[in-house]
Specification:
disordered C terminus; 7-stranded mixed β-sheet; alpha/beta; two-stranded antiparallel sheet; Rossmann fold; 6 helices; 23% strand
């Protein structure tokens, strides 16, 4: 297995009553258990973050960006560094949520374009699947309660990210659910839908994850990218509701994962697959090989 140096980063400063990095401890532990070197952190301040703004020069292989802000989570210098990081071959995963949560991602070029946010010029309230929280607007897909599972819909051939040896079908069949997921789309060249969900309120299908692979800059390959419809696929609360949530979370949790943790174990194969798939690669014709990157200790 190729070991990656991963920056697991939120777009907010430390805030115990918010979705700061302490609420993604189980994700960090899972990545470390898979053998990866993980630095998990929040922003240091609202100014240019010393790590994010120098991301392309610190020897990381991957950025897992939990975009939990309301629009101001990235400065220009940080967005530019992330763009350079991808142009240098670094892999990037983004995870946002409903409405405009994480809309700082729009600064990230093609990776920003696959993340769709609220159009304030159009009344989209009729599209909201979660009617129990009227303060949350579009995008808003109700895949189930926090702490429950949602079925994953996938077409053949199944994307490598969904492959597993721990289910009879050979694919990841369940993701953690959330009452109001955001929207991601395969709206740019080289983007493909990895997995779809279905709203438990309206029955509408929506994308759970979109991958970008094969994008180039000045004729050279960029790093792979993966956009998630919600960071709740990875939050501690959605893996174990006993971990608790910020005080502003009002929806009652579910109990399916606590009652049947085996399906969550299969989902962690998706997490491990993502870490392997996002590792920088050297492309030579049809061959794809892992690429070693410089490591700098912070």
């Amino acid at each position: 297995m190729t070991v990656s140096r991963i920056l697991l980063q939120t777009t907010i400063t430390a805030q115990p009553d918010d979705w700061d990095i302490d609420r993604f401890a189980l994700l960090a532990a899972e990545l470390r258990a898979a053998g990866h070197d993980v630095l998990a952190r929040n922003r240091a301040s609202h100014d240019d973050d010393p790590v994010l703004s120098a991301l392309d020069d610190l020897g990381f292989d991957q950025l897992w960006l939990m975009a939990v802000d309301t629009g101001d989570g990235l400065t220009d210098a940080e967005a530019d560094a992330i763009a350079r990081f991808r142009r240098g071959g670094g892999g990037v995963l983004t995870a946002r949520d409903h409405q405009d949560l994480g809309s700082c991602l729009t600064r990230l070029g093609s990776l920003g374009l696959v993340n769709e946010f609220q159009d304030k010029t159009v009344d989209q309230s009729h599209l909201c699947d979660d009617q129990g929280t009227p303060s949350i607007s579009w995008p808003n897909f109700h895949s189930g309660a926090n702490g429950d599972y949602q079925p994953v819909l996938a077409t053949d051939p199944v994307h490598p990210l969904l492959r597993t040896g721990h289910s009879a079908s050979g694919r990841v069949e369940w993701f953690p659910a959330h009452p109001h997921e955001g929207a991601v789309s395969a709206s740019v060249p080289c983007a493909v839908v990895v997995a779809e969900g279905r709203s438990s309120a309206s029955g509408r299908r929506f994308n759970l994850a979109v991958a970008i692979d094969g994008e180039t800059y000045d004729g050279l390959p960029m790093g792979r990218a993966l956009a998630e419809s919600t960071f709740h696929h990875f939050a501690d609360y959605n893996w174990d509701v006993n971990r608790g949530a910020p005080s502003f979370v009002s929806e009652p949790p579910g109990s399916q994962i606590l009652a049947d943790p085996a399906r969550l174990r299969v989902f962690t194969d998706y997490v491990r697959n993502a870490a392997s798939w996002l590792h920088p690669v050297v492309r030579t014709g049809a061959d794809v090989e892992p690429q070693a990157r410089r490591t700098v200790v912070l």
